[in-house]
Amino acid sequence: MDSVAAQNAPFSDLLILHGAIVFFLQVGFVSLEVGYGRSKNVKNILLKNTVNILLCAIVWWSVGYAFSFGVSTGGFIGTSGFFHDGSLGVVKIWFYSWNFCLATVAIVSGCLAERTSLVAYPLLTLVMASWVHPVASHWAWQRDSWLLGLSDECRFLDFAGGAAVHVCGGLMGLVGATIVGPRIGRFEEGRAKDIPGHDVSSAAIGTLFLWFGWFGFNCGTTYVYLGNMATAAAATSVDDGLSAPSSPPPPAGATGGNPADRVALNMTLTASVSSLTALLLSSLHSGTVDLVICCNALLAGLVMSTPACGFITSWAAVVYGLAGAGIYLGGARLLVRMHVDDPLESSVVHFACGTAGTVLLGFLARPAYVAQLTGYNCGGLVYGARKGGLLLGLQVLGVVAVAAWTGVFSVLVFWALRRAGRLRVDQVTELAGLDNMDHGGPAYPEFNLVPYNNGSGER
Amino acid sequence: MDSVAAQNAPFSDLLILHGAIVFFLQVGFVSLEVGYGRSKNVKNILLKNTVNILLCAIVWWSVGYAFSFGVSTGGFIGTSGFFHDGSLGVVKIWFYSWNFCLATVAIVSGCLAERTSLVAYPLLTLVMASWVHPVASHWAWQRDSWLLGLSDECRFLDFAGGAAVHVCGGLMGLVGATIVGPRIGRFEEGRAKDIPGHDVSSAAIGTLFLWFGWFGFNCGTTYVYLGNMATAAAATSVDDGLSAPSSPPPPAGATGGNPADRVALNMTLTASVSSLTALLLSSLHSGTVDLVICCNALLAGLVMSTPACGFITSWAAVVYGLAGAGIYLGGARLLVRMHVDDPLESSVVHFACGTAGTVLLGFLARPAYVAQLTGYNCGGLVYGARKGGLLLGLQVLGVVAVAAWTGVFSVLVFWALRRAGRLRVDQVTELAGLDNMDHGGPAYPEFNLVPYNNGSGER
Amino acid sequence: MDSVAAQNAPFSDLLILHGAIVFFLQVGFVSLEVGYGRSKNVKNILLKNTVNILLCAIVWWSVGYAFSFGVSTGGFIGTSGFFHDGSLGVVKIWFYSWNFCLATVAIVSGCLAERTSLVAYPLLTLVMASWVHPVASHWAWQRDSWLLGLSDECRFLDFAGGAAVHVCGGLMGLVGATIVGPRIGRFEEGRAKDIPGHDVSSAAIGTLFLWFGWFGFNCGTTYVYLGNMATAAAATSVDDGLSAPSSPPPPAGATGGNPADRVALNMTLTASVSSLTALLLSSLHSGTVDLVICCNALLAGLVMSTPACGFITSWAAVVYGLAGAGIYLGGARLLVRMHVDDPLESSVVHFACGTAGTVLLGFLARPAYVAQLTGYNCGGLVYGARKGGLLLGLQVLGVVAVAAWTGVFSVLVFWALRRAGRLRVDQVTELAGLDNMDHGGPAYPEFNLVPYNNGSGER
């Protein structure tokens, strides 16, 4: 094993660098959320997101990383590596995996902005970072999990977290937004009223920050797969007793180029097609060229591509983008119709698109790419894969499993918080702004503001 | 070839990481442009820049990358690799090259801000990203292009895009700014009136964002050269039939240290000398220490260094910086005198400095560095290069060729757009602000603004 | 030596990338300082910080890098590599080390914001970047320095700049803030009055920017140590005449995982524990959940970890975090009691925490990690190190030496500037705002501002 570790050192070195870039996602989330929020809640948003990062660090160090990547107990949960002090294998480094937990938690808290109690966030983070996400990520990524061990001929594919990050975070956020209820003034007399963000520049630049971080997220993950493949190959050559299927490598040329380049191309294409399509459709419909739709459909595309970008061709990435546009536009409309107030439309962007991107792999995964990165010889239905439908079945099962797991705990924890009266701030605080009530004053004390009031309740 | 690819894998891995950093240039461009714009056009700027990125992705995937780096047809244009699905060689990865196209396009759109029609941008981006830039970059960088094949003893040098990116983007922007015409109120009764940006903090931080991205741009490009040299060396050792001149490697010590470190040093020195010199001169002249001059002269220095930073010594980098300060100050004054309204002074920063930096190589390129990165034994006039003037001639020719190529299409497309009445927004929209007219409302709905009006036409 | 250089090329390649990330610290410092400042001084802050970067480049190129990493003269100062044109060894690349100088200088100027003369900054930067920091960093990091040569059995440990960067910058800032005196209105009739920053969002996002850059700072430094160890090992295998102690490598398993991952984990844990502890204590005390305390205690934790994160276990990182919270809260209170006005609390965050983090290593450094990264077999007192107290003595000595060295020149230069009447702007300028007086107008010309006045002197 020592020689393997030495040989693969570059993979973990690359992951350190990619991990730093992934950390930038947090800057993106906070810029986005601040921008879409109202000026009276800026400090609150900054504070809760920062505290989430800090808390996640302690939780991921103590238990999350172990539950996620430790040696599997019954295929359900990892049980080694608590209070981490050294990496759990060649490429499963703490720093890189911590950033995935951070992203999951940030998605949840985005859905709850501007009316949730400050006490609720750390509790939700604790549940998510110590339990819900680690177990989901164990199922999705740990070789010995029940989900990855279901078949010898194929495996559930979740490239960089369509299920383990986006379904998990987005669904908990959706449950939360529903149970917490809409911000005052968002829905009145059965009608939705837009609450425009106070600084769209911060939101749009935050979207680009997220894209930057996402390159670390998806491209970096390529090296996790390559590192695992190299480790398996080295182990085979030594003792020939390998747990991974020793399928022959794909024919030369079939997978030309650096796989991380394919990943970058695919995520870029999907995001671009998704955003441009949604922008075009919405502009034709409304006559307004809407920056928010451009940004959110872009993020929808990035989420769509996350479970898939290493496993599909660029043409499939275009299909993903078209699907992303449709799901985003439809989902956003559905949210409004259901009177769910999700200030960043995070639940659509993350939950709906994470689900769709994962399931679509059952149709579009290219066998040569799957083999290159996982060693399994299987692919999507359009490739007429030998056992048509096996991968699709696994994909559906995986998403349903993660969603069911997440849903149960989400309902439980939000219901408990509401019962305890700790979920939502009181009406006075919400109207006056969380910054004035809880955080010692406004975020922009020198600016003359005209607070946005669109609800009769605010007068 | 397979063994070569394997051996050089680290180069493309490094380029993925550098590519992510280069992507940050887009954050820089957008911060800069938002900051220098007026509050009434913020959403428009954010939207057009984001759409440019998205559109470039589709164009670069479908044709741009192939025209640029595909197998050369007649030395004029690449014709393989359409709808890219795998890298065109060891270091010509799609992701990295796409970011260069993005930069070129962003430069153009900066010159047109605050009065150009929203329809014009995608059309301009299409022309630039699918045709003008790919062909220019084919000439400048593809080994088999007519420009690089002119001489057996030397070649046109454009380290990271002085001609292919900055001359190309800056000249199209200059043509555009001239044909679109100045913003209302910029020139009145023969006098220029400053239109101050609404958020200088965003502009100055955007400048630092750009610098960060530029380290990826220039340092990363070092690995493209090193990767190409390693590939050529490996090919030689195998079949001894090499297209690149097999000049002896430079003597040990002559090129000490990591070449990417030299690149970082040189670009930093040039930017620093340029900015400090311009700031000092302008402060002595006007009595005001002007942040905009500091930032723009810094960018001028970065542009100057882009074609050169791998090929020159640090002393030459200082000379570059002094030249950059002079060109920036003189060019900015000339723009005003010619009544060209370029809100970010992009045409000076990019076109003039890109030209100067490329041509100056004919004097200052150090032979040992040229040999290290390209295999050619030639250098600038101050080194008394064997064939004095050959490199200088190639540099002038290269810049003139790229400028002529770009100029023709720039005039054509802007002229066509103006004839079609699609180039500029109407006066009412310009005065009311693009955000209110086209994008559904202001970017900062809660802030009490005092819109800047400096033109009588605005009253 | 050539083969060593070739073999270690990846280390310097990684440092180029980490160096770019460290550069982002400058974006962080400027965002932080702008956010905590008042709107009337925004341009001034942006300008002085940018000029500092530019000036540092010229100084570090010409002399700083040579004084710091050149061949040692008498163990006191380096004297080779002036006007750098090639790296001083395998991992001591110019670009990476320049960024450390930038950080040191930025710390100083943060303490002086909003009332210091524009002429003073370049002079201070000159003294710091050409003399004070290079010598301190020579002592702390250059193998042949008097400090590192004191003992054959152990050496002073300063992982990534607790003494050479944070003590050095923080102490000069503290001396400066004291001699410059408080901003008008900060202390009146013996009472401290808060001067809230004009844009807390910029400050908090700046804190996250800093954290991002800090990953480059600390994780990157790991490769400096690994590169030095690899060079030493290669030299030993060649000529067996090695200056570094050839202690046996630590037992396999004792140092499992990528050391850069340990670094990332430790700095994250310390920052998290520090910030959450300080936030909890202060919230219980005041009833307000204060974003500024959250951010500054986070930075305090990052500083604490800087000298230590490669050498300690994760449990020790938690202890570091607890200590960081206490030192930050106590130090901030002490500053106010002493009527020192440090707008960013930089002197506490950097000087006090840098000192504590360095000295604590004498107790908590883990021998196996010290051996892994330096080749020395020694550790902190809690490990019952063979020569208990030797390391602790060296740590105290190192910090005292750097502090004494810095203190002397700090007092001299600030005293000289004050005598020359060049240290502080006049009262009219300070009240009217530096932007209006020196920089041609306000930073946000379209925003309706209500300048913050909290001093009777301002009326």
UniProtKB/TrEMBL annotation, chains A, B, C:
Q: Where is the Ammonium transporter AmtB-like domain?
A: 16-444
- List keywords of the entry alphabetically: Ammonia transport, Membrane, Transmembrane, Transmembrane helix, Transport
Q: Name one GO cellular component term.
A: plasma membrane
Q: Does the keyword Kinase apply?
A: no
Task: State any single GO MF term.
Answer: ammonium channel activity
- Cellular localization per UniProt: Membrane
Q: Which stretches are transmembrane?
A: 15-32, 53-73, 93-112, 119-139, 159-180, 200-217, 263-281, 288-306, 312-336, 348-369, 389-417
Question: Which membrane topology describes this protein?
Answer: Multi-pass membrane protein
Q: Which domain of life is it from?
A: Eukaryota
A single GO BP:
ammonium homeostasis
Instruction: Give the InterPro entries listed for this entry.
Output: Ammonium/urea_transptr, NH4_transpt_AmtB-like_dom
Q: Which family does it belong to?
A: Belongs to the ammonia transporter channel (TC 1.A.11.2) family.
What this protein is called in its record is: Ammonium transporter AmtB-like domain-containing protein
